[in-house]
Task: structure prediction
Amino acid sequence: MTDRLFSDRRDAGRVLAGPFTQTADEEVRRLLRAAASARAGAPPVRTDLAVLRSELVPVRDGVPSDEVPFQIVGDARFVLIGEASHGTHEFYAARARMTRRLIEEKGFVAVAVEADWPDAYQVNRYVRGRGDDASAEEALRGFARFPTWMWRNADVLDFLGWLRERNERLDERARAGFYGLDLYSLHRSADEVVAYLEKVDPGAAARARDRYSCFDHSDGDDGQAYGFAAAFGAGESCERRVIDQLVDLQRNALRYQRAQGLLGEDEFFHAERNAAVVAAAERYYRTMFGGRVSSWNLRDRHMADTLFALSEHLGWQRSEPARIVVWAHNSHLGDSRATEMGARGELNLGRLVREHNRGDCRLIGFTTFAGTVTAADDWGRPAERKNVRPALPGSVEELFHEAGHKEFLVGLTRSAGAADLLRGARLERAIGVVYRPGTERQSHYFQTRLSDQSDAVVHIDETRALESLERTARWERGEAPETYPVAV
Result:
């Protein structure tokens, strides 16, 4: 290959070194006419925007017509629908409408969300007609930990009301459920395990209470105090105890499940998942002080394990593969191998689902160019209605904005031109529960190859803030626009 390269260069040098002779005026005119004729006969060069415009699919309120999402989904059992922020109304509303269609017309039986297992399971009991809560709003009160607006908001409330009403028309096994995949609920999950065992095996409940007592010295309910102490050797590590508790529960699975029939199967599964959460949360809080990558990977592996366990449980109950919709942030659901996070060693739920179920899953993302968002200045701070700055040059969002359509879908597995266009590296914005516009490039953008990250993307050019069920005066006031006269 190297020899061939040098040979070509020598040939080119001999041509350029040849004698130069004067060209006649008529010959120049003939060459110019020939060049113009060649340009006229050649197909026009298509710009990036022309390619994108020719293949985008119009949507209304973030949702395309029925046949488009059904073509994208096909027979896939896992449909992962993301969001570019945790506080945008249009993402939540469109995702809920898509999910309704998948449940009603494609036989999906569960929604699994980026939320703690016990909090979501309280909602699951409500929508399946089992819990003590009189309304969807009451069922959502389990989401008491920051950031409450992620699930205690008007769009989720509407969806749960619809799901409860639909389920009431069906028999028990046909009802769709609502489940959490996350691992932050260290203390509440431990309490749920003990509460379950007190009903079926008081002796085992006493043993569980003793094992989990190693967390008692840690203040607060989020596990960080325990993690800090354990990571730096100041206090007892509960690792062995929580694993023993999980194994003990699993060893008695058949005996416990036989007690209550179908309800017993579900309640045991709830208890087992809580015990798994405690074990995963113990590791997570211990590793979060040691490095971001390791704790991120542990969290997303836990979400994948929970999703696969849920699929197996529901499939076994229904004697057929369970089809599940997943709601989480784009950063969890887009394949991390196509992003700069993957280059740093991070994996995520989208990648794990693809690896585990290649061809049996679909990853769908959302993007926006500008608008408002519900977010906080920092973790644990009050929710505010913040202005979202226009997307940065060189970003996916800027390209979509320049397409000139208010909202559209790009199917990256079916639109060859758009897929090629978006296979090159571009910036993509990610806003979580915290938004820091002052450091937006460092805090909220990453490089991605969008065609490899997702199977389809819905772009809504201007979006508005998600409405929490607890709207504060600070949220109502919102941010002043950047052009606001500060010197008055």
User: Anything to note?
Assistant: Residues 1-21, 484-488 have pLDDT under 50 and may be disordered.
